[in-house]
Specification:
Helices cover 35% and strands 18% of the residues. It is α/β, with parallel strands linked by helices. It has a six-stranded mixed beta sheet, sandwiched between helices. The longest helix is centred in the N-terminal third of the chain and has 17 residues, at 28-44. The structure holds glyceraldehyde-3-phosphate. Glyceraldehyde-3-phosphate is lined by residues 20-21, 81-82, 145-147, 165.
Length: 192
């Protein structure tokens, strides 16, 4: 069995400011995670010469992958964070002020940000990524974003659709998934 390693990007400057979306670079803490992740991956995937690193097209994932050497890197638009549309770049506080209706709370799975996406939209656009992940024989490290990783994790861990928007995917933690005959096994490595 070959592992799939899922991780969010290291903490970004927008994470520190509490802003969603955007395309900011890493904070100093995020940079430290990128180095720790590189160390981990180089040890964990030593001798796995066909392994690859998949990121989104956003700076914070590309910069998180940066210190990892020795493996090919592939950027997928489908791994970009949920598009928050008119709320892109806002804090949750600002969103509350500007969009006082509670429809996202009521149905987070189906709520589509104006001019943006819903979780269901994200799940749908991930299909080609999942097909490609299933096809891989070598390990893959997926460096992406919270909403996207909720959906990917739910697929592999066989969690129901309605749970997806609420699954915890903490920063600076690697979720390792192994698919074997007896089902899916999961390990978590909290690097900081
Ligand atoms: O930028 C969005 C977050 O990563 C997803 O968080 O869907 O829980 O608001 P949320």
């Amino acid at each position: 069995p070959r592992p799939i390693l899922l991780t969010r990007h290291g903490e970004s400057r927008d994470n520190v400011r509490g802003r969603i979306g955007g395309d900011s670079v890493l904070s100093d803490t995020g940079e430290v995670y990128a180095k720790k992740l590189a160390n981990f991956v180089e040890k964990r995937l030593k001798n796995e010469r066909a392994a690859s690193i998949w990121t989104s097209t956003l700076q914070r994932t590309i910069l998180t992958a940066n210190p990892i050497v020795g493996f090919p890197k592939i950027q997928w638009r489908a791994l970009d964070e949920i598009n928050a549309g008119v709320c892109d770049g806002m804090t949750y506080e600002e969103i509350k002020k500007n969009m006082p209706d509670e429809s996202r709370k009521k149905d987070k799975l189906r709520y589509r940000y104006p001019r943006g996406e819903s979780y269901l939209d994200v799940i749908q656009r991930l299909e080609p990524v999942i097909i490609e992940l299933e096809r891989q024989r070598a390990p893959v490290v997926v460096i992406s974003h919270q909403a996207v990783l909720r959906a990917l994790y739910a697929y592999f861990a066989d969690r129901p659709l309605k749970e997806i928007p609420h699954i915890e995917v903490p920063l600076h933690t690697i979720i390792e998934i192994q698919m074997g005959v007896s089902g899916v096994q999961e390990k978590r490595y909290k690097l900081m």
